[in-house]
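Dear support,

I submitted the protein below through the web form. The confirmation email said the job was done, but the results page showed an empty box. After a refresh the structure appeared. I'm attaching both so you can tell me whether what I see now is the final result or a partial one.
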Amino acid sequence: MPLTRVSESPSRPVLSEAIAMVNGTPVTQAELAAAVAKSGEPDTPGLRRTLKYRLIACELLWQAAQRRYGEAAAGEAQSSVQVDTAIKRYLRDEVRPAAVTDADVRTRYAQISEVLQTIEPGSYRVLGREMLEDSIRAELTDERLNQAIHVVVERLMEQADIRE
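What the results page shows now:
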């Protein structure tokens, strides 16, 4: 679920509305409420923690993109398309996930095969080996990309001034 921080008005929110400050830029309660509503999930403390983390991560990525590419000044109203484009460009330049090898696919295939041995036959549908390997490769590629993005975000968080 992509999240984008977009300031709808150039005015700064009241500090009491801020749930976090990221290098002096507020992440607001209204942004969190909008993210919760957009998620379609039940509103729980766990969901709010996850979405707050994502909003902070998006702000950090946006700030990093601004520094790298000279995007509009911080605090200016931006469309979600502008923010998404800048963040994707930054991630494309910054993230280098490890390649998925045939050995990785074989290992995951073996793990899945072991699990299937414990399930009653006929209670699942078996894909062809080639189709399953393609699916495994895509899943591993996504996992590695997400891990690499997480590393970039954690590095940005270590360098940032975040106040909650």
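Response: this is the final, complete result; the empty box was a page-load delay. Residues 36 and 44 are 9 Å apart (CA to CA).
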